[in-house]
Each structure stands twice: as structure tokens, then as C-alpha cells.
């Protein structure tokens, strides 16, 4: 039986030209899908990195701010006295002098013995600021027992008075190996000295990574009204004595945090840190400056009410 002309035409395949056109259209659609997916994945990675940067920055500044608000508290009934030796800063860092807070550079901290000479801290000098902050106070934790001796000086001898324990934290930057990137990255560390003036090794713990700059300005109360009259950076407090640190009622914290490495290059950025311009060249990192001011409540109360 012979096929009709219409049936023969219906059984014909596509021509080479039609197949090439279909393949071209398919390639265009596939390319558009790949580009859209790549842009979406890149955008998601950037948003995730910025969200992580925000969380880490807020956590670090909030933690240090809370520590500074507690510093100088020696218990509900403790009002420690000082000997004349405390006028020397080499002696003032001892627990008997009840120095509430200290801030400065890495070199100054090593001279005072707050940071061991062998500590792998970052000292950028004139580059990115790398401050050191030491806080001290009493709490109900598991630290060394804190009490007063017969001359009303702080001591770590037993027994405890009111179950108060000594708490100290020395905050500084150091470089650490990062397994994710395979590089050394800057991190904020805290060193805790459980028994000052002893041979026990301090315990250091990492708080957060990718802190590229750390600076603190100290607000001093020079009129006794409980409010800061002027703020001083780490380089301006090198000659301060224990009496000067007693008058500190506020601290302004600056931290420049960076993200994980980005796929796209990031243009140069400039931040104003403690009155100085800090510039980062173009690279593959997003950065953000975090600034917060903490009130040293116990120093402010002593200044305003004279106790």
C-alpha cells in the first residue's frame, strides 16, 4: 500500500539547520542558567561572610565591653588600700596594689610582665594598632580566693572573705594558623593569670579570629564628677601611674574585623581608628570597623562619691 504524500512528509526528521538552531538556543539557555547560578552562589557567599563578620565583631566588642564594666570591683565589702610602693608601675601591677585596669602597647605590657616575653603577640608599631588591655575584678567564679590582709591590701591567701575570687584577663592580638585558609591570621586572645606573682604558666584562649586592628582610648575623669573629660590612646598613657588609672571611667574600643577570603576583589578601604586614618589596600577581604564605649562603673562610682 502506497503512502500518501502527507504521511511521507510527516515522517521526515529535522534538518541539520534546525538541529543547529536548537543546539544554539539550548546553549544560550544553559549559559544563562550557569551565570545566574554563579552570581547567586557568589552573592550568597558574600552575604554569609558579611553576616559572620557582623556576628564576630559584635561578640568581641561586647565581651570586652562587659569585662571593662566589671573591672575594679573587689567584692561587696572590700575597699583595698595601697602601699607607697604602688606608685611604681612595675610594682603597681601586683595584686596588692589593686590596679583596676591597664592599657598600652605590647612592648609596655612585656616590660610590666603582663605579657610573657616569649608571647607570640602582634606589635605592628606604626601600622595597624595592636593594643593590650588588662582587666581585674572579683567575682564568684572558680578562680583563686581573694581577700584582704591586716593592712587592708588585696591578697590571694586563704580563707576567702564572702567567697570572692580573683579574675584577670589580658587581651591582645596574635597570629595563628588557620586550617581553613592555610594561612596565618590575626586573632584576639585573652590570657588569664590565676595566681599572680607565681611561676605558674598563664592560660591563653582564643576569642575570635580575623581582628586586623585593636585599639582602645581611655577616658579619664580629671574633675571628680564621674564623667570622662578627655580620651587618651595607647601611645599617650605610657607614663601613667596607678593613680591615673584609678581615674579612668570609660574606654572606647576600636576593632577592625575582616571576612573570610572573597572570590571577587574588594577595593581599598580607610577607617578612622582613634583619630588616625587606617588604610587597607585592595585585596579579597571585606572589612568593617566596630566601635563601642564601655563605662567603667566601679571607677566612676569611686570618682563621683569618693570611695
UniProtKB/TrEMBL annotation:
Answer yes or no on keyword Transit peptide: no
Taxonomic source organism: Kushneria konosiri
- Spell out the PROSITE patterns in the cross-references: PROKAR_NTER_METHYL
**Any one of the GO BP annotations:** type IV pilus assembly
Domain of life assignment: Bacteria
- In Pfam terms, one family for this protein is PilW
Is the keyword Nucleotidyltransferase assigned to this protein? no
| Keywords annotated in UniProt | Membrane, Transmembrane, Transmembrane helix
Q: How is this protein named in the record?
A: Pilus assembly protein PilW
Residue spans crossing the bilayer: 20-38
- Stored NCBIfam families: IV_pilin_GFxxxE
